[in-house]
Amino acid sequence: MSKRVLIFDTTLRDGEQSPGVRLSPQEKLQIAQQLSRLRVDVIEVGFPVASPGDFEAVSAVAREVRGPVICALARANAADIDRAAEALQAAERKRIHTFIASSEIHMKYKLRMQPEEVLAAAARAVARARQYTHDVEFSAEDATRSCPEFLCRLYRTVIEAGATTINVPDTVGYATPGEFAQLIRFLRENVPGIEDVVVSVHCHDDLGLAVANSLAALEAGADQIECTVNGIGERAGNASLEEIVMAIRVRQDVLKAWTGVATDQIYRTSRLVETLTGVPVPPNKALVGANAFAHESGIHQDGVLKHSTTYEIMRPEDVGAPGQRLVLGKHSGRHAFRERLLALGYRLREEDVEVAFARFKEMADRKGGISDRDLEALVEGMVQERPLWILDYFQVSTGNRTLPMATVSLIKEGRVVQEAACAQGPVEALLRAVDRAVGAEFRLLEFSLNAITGGKDALGEALVKVERDGAIYTGRGVSRDVLEATVRAYLQAVNRWLAGVPAHHQVQTGG
Ligand code: KIV
Ligand code: ZN
Questions:
Q1: If you measure from the C-alpha of residue 12 to the centroid of ligand 1, how many angstroms do you get, rounded to a whole number?
Q2: CA-to-CA distance for 207 and 201, rounded, in angstroms?
Q3: Position 386 confidence tier, pLDDT thresholds 50, 70, 90
Q4: Is the C-beta atom of 226 inside 6 A of ligand 1?
Q5: At a CB cut-off of 8 Å and minimum separation 6, what does 128 contact?
Q6: How much is the average pLDDT of 371-384?
Q7: Residue 251: which CATH number?
């Protein structure tokens, strides 16, 4: 007998707690719409009391996204719950997710509460949430480091107060699969009323065990798995949605479960989350990494050409990943270019197609074949630009015996500003020239360059993190020229500063 397992996506809440990530309400709405196409069961959008931005994001998703249950997080107190309910008002199907810590360490040092007080606060919170919705989830934060007998009392109390889902978080990623499965079995056997509620698990990846723990819990009786796209999240992240969903699909024979997820939307969702969060997907990431379906060795290529099942346990199409490699070249026309963009899911405005086409032609002139991955990088680079400051041109002169010097020309609302600067290194000179042109100085906190396609003529991706007036801004730029990728990434961060979109939270939440 195969069981239907619920997929609770927390990319927009726990995923957004990844260091350096900040999503605007508009970006959260865009991702939520894609999560609805992915057909997850629940979307946890945010923590409304934490910031006006999170409140606005939850309200917007509640108003506009249909299909999945829309969920908001609240600590176990009246103000948090009322704010979550207010943000969720317009949702067709809404869930309030309230939590309080249950481990000795957390109760003693963080909450400074006695166990009896925690029980009372949890019951009050659940009962209050039930006044707003019949769908209430309760989480015992740090459950895996809590006394199992106390956990039983806590879950029994919240079930009696009206919780319809009880969540067992491995908040600090401490559990091992056997131990976590044992905890789920223990709770199933010892919590009165547990058979009438959904048992959920929520695993963090501090020891790289989040997916393994979630699957072990599933085999031990969990009904819902909480996870994030690309596995992003607090510290080392959460269990990865795509890995959970595809493991359940590919190994249905042992896991005896299925999900309602439209797996052919996985790749698109992963790319969108990567673009909007700025957290790069490593090339070797299971299912969605650039190399997930690439075969390098001659023996493997020969096997795959004879029969794909020799070295592939699933097809790229199963997750919606592009299977084709070379699709376009410098002789391709607008029509083929537009068709390919559509096939990749990009519906650009006519003027954007023109800009993309011109850049594609430039790229095709310099590079033999253009892969889907190149095209995506090109369009993403453009979409992210939509700037207040636009790069007109830049020039850098450098050498081992001269002081590097950079000139930049930037445009803002039709006004062209040119500036030059010297520095010890070419990147420093370039960024200094940008600072002068935009009339503001930023402190560069982090800077990295990666090759995102293969070969000597690979596309380069630059990621920057800058600071100004205590706030942090991130940017990503893509180009075949690493200095151009750098200046584009830096300008994106500058534009985020101009747009007032810093990359940090105002209130701390659970893990
Ligand atoms: O990791 C955790 O404990 C959490 C809870 C808020 C569910 O994210
Ligand atoms: Zn968490």
A1: 13
A2: 16
A3: low
A4: no
A5: 78, 81, 82
A6: 75
A7: 3.20.20.70
* Residue span of the structural domain in which 329 resides: 294-380
Ligand at shortest distance from the CA of 103: 1
* Residue 149 one-letter amino acid: E
Ligand 1 atom closest to the Cα of residue 143 is 3
pLDDT at residue 294, rounded to an integer: 66
pLDDT at 324: 41
Q: What predicted TM-score, i.e. pTM, was given to this entire model? A: 0.67
Residues 53 and 180 in one domain: yes
Is residue 290 predicted with pLDDT exceeding 90? no
Is 511 contained in some domain? Answer: no
SS3 40: coil
- The helix/strand/coil state of 224 is strand
Atom of ligand 1 nearest to the CA of 99: 6
Q: Is residue 259 part of a domain?
A: yes
> For the chain, what percent of residues have pLDDT higher than 90?
70
CA 116 to chain centre: 37
How far is 23 from 33, CA to CA, in rounded Å? 14
CA distance 458 to 287: 22
Backbone angles phi, psi at 193, to 5 degrees: 85, -5
Question: Counting ligands in written order, which one lies closest to the CA of residue 139?
Answer: 1
Confidence (pLDDT) at 486: 96
| Most ligand 1 atoms within 8 A of CB, residue of 47, 180, 204 to mutate | 204
Of the candidates 172, 206, 44, 11, which has an alpha carbon nearest to the alpha carbon of residue 102? 172
